[in-house]
Amino acid sequence: MESHPAREIPYAASGGKEADSLSKTSSNNIVAPENERNGSLGISLKWLNRGVALPLLAGILFLLLWEKQVFHGIFGLKKYQLPLPSAIAEAMRDNISLLLSYTGYTLAEAVIGMLIGSACGFLIALAATAWPRWGGSSLSLVAALNAVPIVALAPIMNLWFGDGIGSRAAIVTATTMAAMAINAYKGMSAVDPLALDLMHSYAAGKPAVFRYLRIQNSLPYVFTALKINATASMIGAIVGEFFFSSRGLGYLLSNSIKVAKMPLGWSCIVLAAIAGVIFYLAVERLEKVFIKWHPSRRA
Predict the structure, then answer these.
(1) 125 partner at 20 to 30 Å CA-CA among 57, 185, 235, 271?
(2) Could you give the angle at the alpha carbon of 13 between the alpha carbons of 9 and 19, nearest 5°?
(3) So what's the pLDDT on residue 115?
(4) Does the model's pTM come out above 0.90?
């Protein structure tokens, strides 16, 4: 085939300008709409990647099936046994001030008890790590205390601390101490041997080893325990209110079931779940703030 050099001269002489203009034209006419489409698709996929859209759709579908009494038909339940979401929402709207007041009371019990229990558990872990011979047995005692049912602790704490907020805070303290003690002890013990040898080579004392190595290494474990305790503390506070209390979500839930006001009782359950999730997210946010330097947060 014969070549056509005359058709190649303008391209070479123009120094590629023609090609540039063609590429610009094609980018203006063809590529830009694709980018726009990709951008809109990326936004929608971004929502999916955030894990918001799918759980939201699943929740809406669950509520629709519940409202249409699908679960009543499957499990053979009546409306007074499983109130409809519309009835629960109406009960929440009619008693919103009472529910918010009792939610704050129960949340205060949970927060106070969790802070005291977590602090005690951390101190026990410190003692068990610093003096393994004497402090190690304290972990067994804390685990034994955690195995005691809340229904058995509630009368004892009520006898010791009265029927005020102190008895429920004491119940939460007892139920949250073990998770912190065991997790913090694991974090303080599982240090890098090379880092420990380096500290010893610099003649670092036991306080310096704890301050710069063991406690810092235990922080991810500590926040894991705090996230576990955030939800466990709500359970302890609500169950404690079942027995001896004149306020709180547990008290209102117990009374609502006794007088067959099931929509109000389910309102207490919904608000307890919301408060527990908010408490958990607050602890998770603190974790991101305080240990963002840790290698486990870089992924």
Answers:
(1) 235
(2) 90
(3) 95
(4) no
